[in-house]
Amino acid sequence: MKPLDAEIGCATALVVDGNPASRSILTNMLRDFGVRQVVQTSRAADARKALEYRHFDIVVCEYHFEGQAMTGQDLIDDLRLAQILPLSTVVVMISSEAGYERVAEAAEAALDAYLIKPHTEEALRERLVQARHRKRVLRDVIQKIEARDYLAAAELCQARFETRSACWIQAARIGAELWLKLGKPHSSQKLFEAILATRALPWARLGIARSEYQAGGVQKARRTLESLLNDQPHYADAYDVMGRVLLESGEPDAALAALRRGCDLAPGCVARVQKLGVLAFYHGTPHEAGVALQRAVILGLNSKVFDLQGLVLLALLKFDAGDLRGVTQCLSSIKASREGQPQSARLRRFEEVIQIVRALLERQIAEAVMRTQGLLQELRAPDFEFEAASNLLAVLARLLRREVKFPELSEHLQTLAARFAVSRASCELLSRAAHGRPDFDALIRECYASTCARAEEAVSHTLSGRPDEAVALLMDAAERTLNAKLMDLAQHTLERHWSAIADREALKARVDALDKQYRSYGTQIRLGQHDIVRLEQGSPRPGAEATPAPGS
C-alpha cells in the first residue's frame, strides 16, 4: 500500500487497545501505511507511562478498556492537563460510542480524529493523512511552542487566522490557548468567538468561558458555563472550569459538587480526582478529601500527571486520624520520588512536612520542632512558594494544637502573611490551611489590609501625577515584604508612566532585580491586568482572580 507521506517511514506509533485481536489489526494497518516502529500496549496506564517518557508521532487509542479504571479519554485528559502530550503528536481515538457528548469530549482533549467502530482501513488512513498534513502546515507554530517561545507562536497563529490561511481554525484554537497562557484573555476570546461562528463547537464555548473568567468576568463565565452544561451535561472539562468559577464566587459547596460531577464522568482521570481531593481538603470534609487523594495515589502515584502535593495533604489527613502507618507510607513514597529529583527544594520541603507529622505521632517533639524551625528560616527564600507557605501553616496549626511552643513565632507568621496574602482568595486559602485558627486568620487578613493600603496609596500618587513616588513606595514595600501584588503593580506603573518618571532607570533596575530573584520560578502568584484596572478605578478587591485556587 502507498505510504501515508514521505516522512512516515521515520515515524513512531503507539497502539493502545485491550483487545489482542483489534490491537494486532491496528498495528498491521499502521505498518501497511509505512510506519516501521509500532509499540503496542493493552492498558491505558501503561500507555500513559510510555507517553511520559517517549515521543510518539502517532497514537491510536481505544476508548473503552474492559475491567480497567482508566478510559482512553482519561488517558488523554491526564496527559493534556499535565501538558505532557506534544502538539506534534497525532492522536486518534477509536470507540463504539457514537454519542455526541463523547465526540465533544474528544475534541476538547485536542484529538486529531475520532473513529467509530467498526471502521475501515481506508477511514483510518484518511484521518491520519489529514492530521499529519495539518501538523506540517502548522510546523512553524509547533516549533515555536516546543522552544517555549509562546508569544511568537501566538503571533503566528494570529496572522494565520487574520489571513484565513490553511488550517486557520486549528491555528486559531492553538493561538487562543496561547493568549490565555500569556495572560491576554481578550485576544483569546476573539479567536474562540471566531471559531464558534463557523460551527457550534462545545470546546469553543468553553474557551470563551475560560477567557471571560481570566479577564475577571466571573459571572459572565458562569452564565456561559451554565448554558454550555445545559446543552452538554456530560462535558467533563466544563465542570473543571465551573468548579473554579464557583469557588471564586464564594460557593465552595457548589464548586465541590461540580468537581464531583466531573470525576463521575471521568473516574480514571488522575488530575480530576486529585483536584477534588485538594478542594475537599480545604473546603470540604476530611473523609471525602482522604478518599479522593487515596484514589489519586492508587491511579497515578508513579506518573508525571500526579502532583506530589497530594501526598502532603494525604499525610496531614492520616496524621489527624492518628494513622502512623499511613503517614509512613506517604513518607516512603515522597522519598522514592525525591531520588529522581534530589535537588528539588519543593520535594525536600514536602518530605520535611511529612517528617514533622510523623515525628509528632511518634512523640519525637524535639525533632518536629527542629524541622519546623528549619522551614521557618526559609520564609524569605526566593523559591519558597505559596504552596510551601500553606503547608507550613498546616504543620504549625497541628503543632500548636499539641501545645508545642515556638520562639518568635509571631514574627515568622508576620513574614509569611506579608509575603503571601495577595488577595481575598489567598487569605481564605491560607486561613483554611491553618485549620481555621482565629489568631492566624486575623494576622493574615491584617497583612492583606496593609498590602491593599500600600497599593491604594501608590495609585493615589499616580492619579495625582506623581508616578515616581508611587513606584518608589511600592518598591520599598515590595522589597520589605516580597509581596507579589506590590511587585506587579510597581512594574505596571513604571511601564505605563515611563516617560513621566525622572529616575526611571534606577527604579527599573530595582524592579528587574526583584523580579529576577523572586519571580523566576514560575510558582509565585501574579496580578492580572484586570486586577490592576480594578485598583486604578478604586476597587477594594485587587488580585482575587490571580490566586491559584485549590483544586483548580
Q: Could you characterize what this model shows?
A:
- This protein is mainly alpha-helical.
- It has four domains: 8-137, Rossmann fold, CATH 3.40.50; 145-232, no CATH class; 308-407; 444-546.
- The chain is 66% helix and 5% strand.
- It contains 27 helices and five strands.
- It has helices at residues 20-32, 44-53, 72-81, 100-108, 121-137, 139-146, 150-162, 168-181, 185-198, 202-214, 218-231, 236-248, 252-265, 270-283, 286-300, 309-320, 324-339, 345-361, 365-376, 386-401, 409-420, 424-433, 438-463, 467-481, 484-496, 504-518, 529-536; strands at residues 12-16, 37-41, 58-62, 90-95, 113-116.
- It has a five-stranded parallel β-sheet with strand order 2-1-3-4-5, sandwiched between helices.
SSE order and pairing:
Elements: E1 12-16, H1 20-32, E2 37-41, H2 44-53, E3 58-62, H3 72-81, E4 90-95, H4 100-108, E5 113-116, H5 121-137, H6 139-146, H7 150-162, H8 168-181, H9 185-198, H10 202-214, H11 218-231, H12 236-248, H13 252-265, H14 270-283, H15 286-300, H16 309-320, H17 324-339, H18 345-361, H19 365-376, H20 386-401, H21 409-420, H22 424-433, H23 438-463, H24 467-481, H25 484-496, H26 504-518, H27 529-536
Parallel strand pairs: 1-2, 1-3, 3-4, 4-5
Helix pairs in contact: 2-3, 6-7, 7-8, 8-9, 8-10, 9-10, 10-11, 10-12, 11-12, 12-13, 13-14, 14-15, 15-16, 16-17, 16-18, 16-20, 17-18, 18-19, 18-20, 19-20, 20-22, 21-23, 22-23, 23-24, 23-25, 24-25, 24-26, 25-26
